[in-house]
Amino acid sequence: xxxxxxxxxxxxxxxxxxxxxxxxxxxxxxxxxxxxxxxxxxxxxxxxxxxxxxxxxxxxxxxxxxxxxxxxxxxxxxxxxxxxxxxxxxxxxxxxxxxxxxxxxxxxxxxxxxxxxxxxxxxxxxxxxxxxxxxxxxxxxxxxxxxxxxxxxxxxxxxxxxxxxxxxxxxxxxxxxxxxxxxxxxxxxxxxxxxxxxxxxxxxxxxxxxxxxxxxxxxxxxxxxxxxxxxxxxxxxxxxxxxxxxxxxxxxxxxxxxxxxxxxxxxxxxxxxxxxxxxxxxxxxxxxxxxxxxxxxxxxxxxxxxxxxxxxxxxxxxxxxxxxxxxxxxxxxxxxxxxxxxxxxxxxxxxxxxxxxxxxxxxxxxxxxxxxxxxxxxxxxxxxxxxxxxxxxxxxxxxxxxxxxxxxxxxxxxxxxxxxxxxxxxxxxxxxxxxxxxxxxxxxxxxxxxxxxxxxxxxxxxxxxxxxxxxxxxxxxxxxxxxxxxxxxxxxxxxxxxxxxxxxxxxxxxxxxxxxxxxxxxxxxxxxxxxxxxxxxxxxxxxxxxxxxxxxxxxxxxxxxxxxxxxxxxxxxxxxxxxxxxxxxxxxxxxxxxxxxxxxxxxxxxxxxxxxxxxxxxxxxxxxxxxxxxxxxxxxxxxxxxxxxxxxxxxxxxxxxxxxxxxxxxxxxxxxx
Length: 673
Known about the structure:
It comes from Chlamydotis macqueenii (Macqueen's bustard). Pfam families: CADH_Y-type_LIR, Cadherin. 11% of the residues lie in helices and 31% in strands. Strands 4-11-10-7 form a four-stranded mixed β-sheet, with no helix packed on it. A four-stranded mixed β-sheet has the order 13-20-19-16, with no helix packed on it. A four-stranded mixed β-sheet has the order 22-29-28-25, with no helix packed on it. The longest helix is centred in the last third of the chain and has 34 residues, at 489-522. By secondary structure, the chain is mostly beta strands. Among the domains are: 32-139, Immunoglobulin-like (Sandwich); 147-255, Sandwich (Immunoglobulin-like), CATH 2.60.40.60; 262-363, Immunoglobulin-like, CATH 2.60.40; 371-468, Cadherins (Immunoglobulin-like, Sandwich), CATH 2.60.40.60.
């Protein structure tokens, strides 16, 4: 504080001085831990002196005095095994460390410590204290190898089966489940030199699943004795006395099953000349049964596939004979090869069967004579360079095909007199006119073609030649050229029918469109179809009898003009909401091409004429729908009278209706002005 000394007049009599007041701390605050529960971990098997965790407390008192100096200690430990003092705490820093050996997660997984913090340097008499809980979890290390639950495991597998589990190996491991220290890995150390088995690990149960990888033949191997070992994914911790792995034996028995017979060889190739007659023995195709230890009868044979139906097989001996002549040129022969499939079946339980393919390679013989191609041709009726190129076609192959010899027969004599043929290559020749002119028409020209086989094969093919009149380019100009070119009369008739049908469809579509347009015009309404309510008016009934409904004369509503025409109505009884009878006012007429400057004048003049027009609606804001007759008991529906009686109405209440009616209040409530 700063103090001043002054006299009664306010004059300073002494220099100001500072007064310092020191607040002396008292131990009025307990220590407070930052967390009420502290969590820490320590690996099992840790040596004494291993750091675990640090707990911290604070005191609001002076930290430089005894009131704020804290000391820590452990009040209790639960559980107390294997020793009640497994941990200790640094009384000044709060560091917790192990003080004894023997931490084993498989026995005690968690310790709970009660920690006390006391001020006054831990004086139990004068110091204030507080407590917190320290939870220490013992973490797992791989200090337990997997151990098989049995020394020998047994399994069995049917022969020729793969991807099946034949044995289930179980192990126990005391380490924490689903950790690398618990997960087991299995491997085979003996008994499977060919790699027919593998062992997979079940991720949930940690069991080993012995699975077949390759087919096993009972006739070759009836039993397997496997040696397997199991170990963890991570190595054992240092200092563990147990062996790192566990071993066991797996005995697997192979079960004999009925197997399918198999043909030997498969496929079987037979070379045979075509033309082998029906009933000839071709070959013997037999199968073998791999089941040597089963009591079965002999195999039975049958035909499974024979596209041309050329063969049959003896069901007992497997001898194959022909039922038709073998033809290399058949459509069922591809690249000189004919394939047939046969079936061999046993009588086992269940019955099994196997298939075999017989491949017959057919050797060509000269059993086909060559033919001319094309069968039809066209030439001009005059002698000019327009020779016909022809080709010899022979289904046989070398050496029973080309080169071919072409010649014309001696009879009839007109053939050689009118035509000549010249070979231009081994397979091709040219036919041309020998005479200068041949009358137009269709001629059959026989051509003798001989192949190069031994013996030779020849045939006489007829070439249909159309002789026609030609233009300078050598093209036919006859009318029937289209038919000769391959477009027959039937095709022309079909084209014409299609054109007629198409024209009829187009005509029907046009007529339908015109008819629909007429229907639309006939049904067109003067109003929008959405506003047409003629079909929406429903007549329910007349509800007469209520109040004074029966006193009205409905005929006046139906024909009001016939009851009391306007022309004979007395002037004094005319309704105020009817259109007054006055001369039509003269509205200004705007010129056809007005100047832009006179638009405002034109609008003002039209507005004045409308204001002064007594015949223009609204008449007292009422619309006249029909005349209901005089003397209505309901009175007038209008609450406003015409301008002739406006002075009798009091419109001052419009001022109380708010700003929205201010304009109306000014018009009617302002008095005469």
